[in-house]
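Assemble and predict.
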Amino acid sequence: MNIMNTAHVRHGSNIGQNLTRREGALKVTGAARYAADHHPAGMLYAVLAVSAVARGRVTALDVAAAKAHPGVVDVMTPQNAPKLAHHPDEKTNPFAFRLDILQDAQVRYANQPIAVVIGESLEAATEGAVLLAPAYQAEDVVVRFEDGEHFVPAAVGVGAPAEEGHGDVEAGLRNAAQRVDVTYDTPAHYHNALEPHAIVAEWQGERLIIDTPSQGMAIAQGRLAGLFGIAPEDIYIRSPYLGGGFGGKGLIAGPQVLGIMAAKLVGKPVKLVMRREQLYGPIGHRGVTRQHMRLGADTEGGLTAIDHHILTATSRFDDFFEPSAGVTHTLYATPALLTRYEGMRFDTGTPLFVRAPGEASGSVALEGAIDELAEACGMDPLAFRLKNYAETEPLTGKPFTSKALRACYAQGAARFGWAKRPLAARMMTDAQGLLTGWGVGTATFPAHMFQASARAEIRSDGSGVVEIGAHDMGQGAWTALAQIAADGLSLDMDKLTFRIGTSDLPDAGIAGGSAHTATAGSAIHNATGAAIAALADIAMRDETSPLFGAGNAGVVSRDGHLYRRDDESRGESYATILSRAGLDSVEGRGEGAADQAVTENYAGHAHGAVFAEVKVDPELGQVRVTRLVGAFAAGRVINPRMVESQYLGGMIWGVSFALHEEAIMDRRTGRPVNGNLADYHVPVNADIPSVEAILIDEQDSLINALGIKGVGEIGITGTAGAIVNAIWHATGIRVRSMPVTLDKLLF
Amino acid sequence: MKKSPVSMTINGQPVEELVEPRTLLIHFLREQLNLTGAHIGCETSHCGACTIDLDGKSVKSCTIFTLQAEGAHIRTIEGMAAADGTLHALQEAFREKHGLQCGYCTPGMILRAWRLLQENPDPTDAEIRFGIAGNLCRCTGYQNIVAAIKHAAILMAGAQQKEAAE
Ligand code: FES
Ligand code: FES
């Protein structure tokens, strides 16, 4: 029998509950062990020496001086680094980005690792790294759009086309009654998860054991297996808690590989923890963009054309182009649409995924330009957005699997009090004389799904086990996925053993793209369904069971029991079924992946509306966001508490995008000028007076069996635009270069 | 490098160790004493992940040498719960009000909040937001952290009243 076809009704009560974090007690007591908290016996400390130049060669390292320092055990340089099975520049798959792991003396960006010092103590190794006193032959660098050649990239993001669209944009613009033609600049951002990348690596013969934060253990296993020429199964990764990820821990980074190489070199366990300032280089960043927006509208305020041209920079040695056009493909209805890219090569590390990669940067430019067009049309910006509401996906014409954006606009606006907003700018001042402005932005993020597998087991004592190599980087996988698992097995949470966070469990795919709950959750849903079906099959074949002959569709699971659907007074417990059959357990396995028929025919996106109030000091130009209200619709909510905190966190990232964050590169040296948490600004609590997220009910029966979209990234989109638009409303000044620092408001 | 003797009281326990003069307090706590609850986010006193309580002050333990803590009374996250494992009101409140996501900032946040509530048992929202502005949460749970600290203030005031009544 095909067990997957057995229909059983779920009466689970876990999904939707506002459970607190299951690992919360460990985290509030300091007992949760992050990678750098590990300390195996005999462990040594490895410290990176990183390049002070952005391009050139290392010409000298005083290895002897470093080694002479008491407590220094060894120094790893290109001369003695363990041989790898393949060159780290080999592109073995689209997710294999080039790494700098001491393959040669070349320097490709500032803060690139150039040596690793291994010592008996952190202090000895740190001092050893200083004593290396590297000398360089430096070459000229390019870190600005003005300083080099532009070209059309072959693809952007991971394999997306560099030009897309439909209709005649030039005609649409020519015939428009109102036009905007503006350029928005967004800077490079670094993830700055509070936990720096760290690894504790130990070789046990050919077997490798590592503690390291990972958003994608199976991908890391594959990458490391390739580099070290060993089988992926011989690599055991533990990553039960990440101190934040934001995309920065999606792919294993060079410094983590260096920790493993160092352990190999010295034949002992090694701990390597990156210092904050070293993170501004080898682990990826959000690529800088310059976005030229040309939009037209007719006399009624209906869009006639959108032309979104993106200039963005990758590194000199690898390709990742920040895919900022995605939001423009999906948000506003227009008869003519064109998105296109140009690229440049900078002497920086390769840009990669940072929370809402592409969507965040694209959203600021689109929401800003849309607002400017609304102003040109003399329309309320929310009314303008509703006028151009997309009933089908603008780029493809596909219907949406679900789209409750109108409800987001309505409820967000009502909660915020949008109806009282004066149309013109610079109309509101508060009691302290601060200029006050209100702005809106639309939030959107695609509902991705990747690949995942899970294993479920029902035991003869009536308990259940669910295993999946999922990742909790703070979003709440330990809790939300366990809720899905408990419901899938129709068990109370305390009857469930739930395992995630190690690489020996079934592959959960990557915790990225806001797809983890949907993908891993679907795998769990299918695995638990299979386990229940297997159990039902045993009972239905057993003449002594009240379920005997109930038929494929005739069984219901509830609270650790199976019942006949046609007569729910007849049933028995899981334990009874299994012990009578003489079995210790039954098992089910399941996969999670997008339904191809749905992805071909529908567009799946989460949506939201963000309303911002800002206050601007008219003399000093200082901006504060005094109120933020976001309303989001993202399919089924597994745990409202976790989901709300993803929205709030995302919205605060939006504040950061609009007002704080910016990596500044020295155009002469290519070095980050502000590569530390003092000078690279992120909001502190005092910057965030009031943030509120409204969870809008949205049922989606197409996107996946559980109806889940993603919530981790959408909060940034919309928010930054809403703030920039509010700043205009307060001051009458359109600032088109992020972040909006006070100098840009003074004139 | 030559080690020097150092003694201090950590979470009520006397500690005597030998330590190099260059060893920062955070590394001493984490690597030598295996008290890994305080984390490291920057080592430059900006993130607050390493916050501990030292002689009645919130201190970023990445920014002082171990030897400077000679004779000090230190409290870390490991010393917040009662001996029987009962969570401190602040720990309970952070858990209950979801004042944590990845949890990496949490031990530092809780220690800072504890000192804040010693100094100001009934803070306003704004006093909390400014009072913990030295502790970054990149995740960022600022809203719920404020809710947690307010909740803890109520729990702690209640406990005190009960004590006074008894
Ligand atoms: S590690 Fe001490 S303040 Fe950041
Ligand atoms: S919970 Fe992750 S940094 Fe605060």
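Confidence is low (pLDDT under 50) at residues 1-11 of chain A.
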